[in-house]
Design goal:
The chain is of the alpha/beta class. It has one domain: Alpha-Beta Barrel (TIM Barrel). Helices cover 44% and strands 18% of the residues. It has 12 helices and 11 strands. The strands form 2 sheets. Strands 1, 2, 5, 6, 7, 8, 9, 10 and 11 form a 9-stranded mixed sheet that branches. It has a two-stranded antiparallel sheet with strand order 3-4.
Length: 295
């Protein structure tokens, strides 16, 4: 792994932007940005509009490595360009932001209180392409919908299995077993998850590290043992449906936990805004998320 990128992610002050909305969530993300479904007629047109939104965020003066230490990209975004330069190169060379790639292909059907990741038969090829483009690490998401010990154990086992495949390519995996924020037994599910993750970490070979992306816990600092674990480079938090203000307030109560927000990062941005208006909103947003991350 690139030592400069490793240093930035392991020790940099700031947060990781999530610019990885994929096929299913793209229309909702565009709608939030003020672009309705009547603006495109094909998937290609839809993804082109999404790329333009992401490029506008990345090119903003507010978006730079002083406060944004990393950015998670959708595969199409990784393969795209900004001002004629591949997006991962633009992020690192122009902005000082470390690029990551979302690698999961969506969720399998719900079973045992969880939704595992779908199979990824072409993962090795994708990881090779990502490494060649200067991507530092990956992110994979699965979902926990109930405090099911067996279901959560299966989620964690799958996450670590995929993580090992990523590590074998000299990339840094971000494991993302998301706990749904609306479930009645959220706190219980998070306690089970923490303990399962600690078991998984104990099985990692000495010298290996992974990252984690977790729902902001109901009990503040519940994940501190993970944050402090020598086999964890960094723990980041998803906004998970909370408003930005809610997510920031909850995040600030958790020592050492930093943001990796998607929808909460784009909240308040609009295609109809002038560049000055857009940049002013993004500046306030990035500062607020940064402040919550370093609190």
């Amino acid at each position: 792994m690139d030592p400069a990128k490793t240093q930035k992610i392991a020790h940099g002050n700031g947060f990781i932007a999530a610019l990885d909305q994929s096929g299913g969530s793209t229309p909702k993300a565009l709608q939030g940005y003020g672009i309705g479904k009547d603006a495109w007629s094909t998937d290609e047109e839809m993804f082109a509009l999404m790329h333009a939104m992401r490029a506008r965020i990345v090119k903003s003066p507010a978006f730079n490595g002083d406060r944004v230490i990393g950015a998670i990209l959708f595969e199409r975004t990784m393969d795209g360009d900004i001002d004629g330069k591949p997006v991962p190169s633009y992020l690192w060379e122009n902005k000082g932001v470390v690029p990551f790639l979302k690698i999961d292909k969506g969720l399998a059907d719900a079973a045992d209180g969880v939704r595992l990741m779908k199979a990824m038969p072409d993962l090795d090829k994708l990881l090779d392409r990502a490494a060649a483009k200067g991507v530092f690490g990956t992110k994979e998401r699965s979902v926990i919908d109930a405090a099911s010990p067996s279901g959560i154990a299966s989620i964690v086992a799958q996450q670590f299995d995929v993580g090992q495949q990523v590590l074998a390519k000299d990339l840094m995996p971000i494991l993302e077993p998301e706990v749904t924020i609306s479930i009645a037994d959220k706190a219980e599910a998070e306690a089970i998850l923490r303990d399962e993750l600690l078991k998984g970490l104990d099985k990692l070979p000495a010298g290996q590290q992974i990252m984690l992306k977790l729902t902001i816990p109901t009990v503040a600092n519940l994940f501190k043992p993970l944050i402090d674990h020598p086999k964890v480079m960094r723990v980041v938090a998803l906004s998970g449906g909370y408003s930005r203000d809610e997510a920031n307030a909850l995040l600030a109560k958790n020592t050492g936990l930093i943001a990796s927000f998607s929808r909460a990062l784009a909240e308040g941005l609009s295609a109809q805004q002038s560049d000055d208006e857009f940049n002013a909103v993004l500046e306030r947003t990035i500062q607020s998320i940064y402040d919550a991350s370093v609190a």
